[in-house]
Design goal:
Layout (H helix, E strand, L loop, with lengths): L16 E5 L3 H12 L3 E5 L3 H20 L5 H9 L1 E4 L10 E4 L5 H14 L5 E4 L6 H5 L8 E6 L8 E6 L5 H13 L3 E6 L6 H18 L4 H11 L6 H8 L1 H15 L8 H8 L15
Parallel strand pairs: 1-2, 1-4, 2-3, 4-5, 5-6, 7-8
Antiparallel strand pairs: 6-7
Helix pairs in contact: 1-2, 7-10, 9-10
The structure holds nicotinamide-adenine-dinucleotide (NAD).
């Protein structure tokens, strides 16, 4: 059955060339998804050095794919050849879809969208990978909010299939469908939702992980046993403490604060234990210590 069954929709706009703004953790992963799926892709970074770093990240992941037999070295070379780097937003002028993945700061994202609005074709779809900001407020920085949507990938973007396709207040059906269709063609599992705080997954996961952390103290549970409880009792592939270490304690605290600020539910506020871990520099895997040592 067509994924669009039940929706009244126009055929999705054809997307051939993709721009990715920011080749950090998420942007490099999104650019990798795009080139692997066969799309010409322009990656924009603030400096040539950071651009090269993004390319190296993609090369490393693709090399791993070759080592594991998931792709041939010819396929890797072809994918890498589809990526061009630039430091100029002007070079995204002929992209049909631009996905923004810069720092999670509203003024910065609005500035990027203001420039993208000037340099890209009026019918290009502009997407933000924001986790916690309002897509509608980002879209309002452009003169074409009907062509702006959210495309929320999950980390690591080349590995996790889900992409939340976020409909902002003014997003048109055509823009939402074009983003959905592109994500599906890129091998992802897109789902649609409105522009509400946390979208789908984070709206549910953030307070749930906070509950798990509060139960550690309330019920005097060791992190290992909490993880044992949820992997064995609920079939989670990874326990909540291991997951928090993977996400990064600082990233989770920031996301909790953002959701709490918008929705005000006490469960959404970061638990004291996590705030203390953050100030001690125990950020999880990336710092070598969190709930576990690495
Ligand atoms: N990391 C995650 O798990 C995750 C998951 C989903 C969505 N996101 C969202 O993706 C976006 C990027 O997050 P990330 O984790 O890749 O961050 P990151 O720190 O790895 O990358 C940030 C990017 O922003 C760019 N940047 C910094 N200052 C800039 C400026 N002044 N102008 C233009 N570009 C600038 C950097 O060069 C870099 O490319 C954020 O909106 C974040 O909320 C992150």
């Amino acid at each position: 059955m067509s994924p669009f069954a039940g929706y009244s929709r126009v055929p999705p706009d054809e997307i051939r060339k993709v721009g990715v703004v920011g080749l950090g953790t998420m942007g490099a992963g999104i650019a990798q998804v795009s080139v692997q799926a066969g799309f010409e892709t322009v990656g924009r970074e603030v400096s040539a050095e950071l651009g090269e770093r993004g390319r190296k990240t993609i090369e490393r992941y693709l090399a791993r794919g070759v080592d594991k037999g998931r792709m041939s070295s010819d396929e890797r070379d072809a994918a890498l050849a589809r990526l061009t780097l630039t430091t100029e937003l002007d070079d995204l002028a002929d992209c049909d879809l631009v996905i923004e993945a810069v720092l999670e700061e509203l003024p910065l994202k609005r500035a990027v969208f203001g420039t993208l609005d000037e340099v890209t074709r009026p019918d290009a779809v502009l997407a933000t990978n924001t986790s916690a900001l309002s897509v509608t407020e980002i879209a309002e920085a452009t003169g074409r909010p009907d062509r702006v949507v959210g495309m929320h990938f999950f980390n690591p973007a080349p590995v996790l299939p889900l992409v939340e396709i976020v409909r902002a207040r003014e997003s048109s059906d055509a823009a939402v469908d074009a983003a959905y269709d592109w994500a599906a063609r890129a091998g992802k599992q897109p789902v649609r939702c409105n522009d509400t705080p946390g979208f789908i997954v984070n709206r549910i996961l953030i307070p749930l992980l906070n509950d798990c952390v509060r139960v550690l103290d309330e019920a005097d549970v060791a992190p290992e046993e909490m993880d044992k409880a949820l992997t064995n009792g609920l079939g989670w592939p990874l326990g909540p403490c291991a997951l928090l270490d993977l996400i990064g304690i600082d990233v989770h605290v920031h996301a909790s604060d953002a959701l709490h600020g918008k929705l005000g539910e006490p469960r959404m506020a970061p638990p004291e234990r996590l705030v203390a871990m953050q100030s001690e520099g125990k950020l999880g895997r990336k710092s070598g210590a969190g709930f576990y040592s690495y």
